[in-house]
């Protein structure tokens, strides 16, 4: 029963988060109240505050779900190479259809709004920090006990995605949804250069 309740709670929080993201992206955080998010989500204001301490925190589940998506792709691998990481970065930032492209553009608008709202930037920062910590653990199969390399690559991957999305959101290229993936892959290559172990002869070619 507790598992079912947990799933229902997670689903409700995600529904509220999706509503908050759209409202913030369209109107900004200062023009949207927690009550308006609750009403649009079909929950009471009391329920809203049971889940989220501030209205800005309400976007968290959407952002964390995005981070969890690419972590799950990597978690299935025993060893992660630069090729694997680059491929996953490109995959998660390349919309598969028009709906995903629209979602990416909404994210761009949200990140523009975050430029003016410290609390929203704090949520974005927490998501990136948690994602980086999760990647450090996932890279154990590649680097073993060499924590420095694991942290460098995890920081490089997380920062590459963050930098690409933030720059794209503030650029004139937001109609082109291919831009974030290209910029993130380029940033990752630059940031992680020299951190990877040397592959065995022919190992990289066989990926």
UniProtKB/TrEMBL annotation:
<keyword id="KW-0805">Transcription regulation</keyword>
<dbReference type="InterPro" id="IPR001647">
    <property type="entry name" value="HTH_TetR"/>
</dbReference>
<protein>
    <submittedName>
        <fullName>AcrR family transcriptional regulator</fullName>
    </submittedName>
</protein>
<dbReference type="InterPro" id="IPR009057">
    <property type="entry name" value="Homeodomain-like_sf"/>
</dbReference>
<dbReference type="InterPro" id="IPR050109">
    <property type="entry name" value="HTH-type_TetR-like_transc_reg"/>
</dbReference>
<feature type="domain" description="HTH tetR-type">
    <location>
        <begin position="10"/>
        <end position="70"/>
    </location>
</feature>
<keyword id="KW-0238">DNA-binding</keyword>
<feature type="DNA-binding region" description="H-T-H motif">
    <location>
        <begin position="33"/>
        <end position="52"/>
    </location>
</feature>
<dbReference type="Pfam" id="PF00440">
    <property type="entry name" value="TetR_N"/>
</dbReference>
<keyword id="KW-0804">Transcription</keyword>
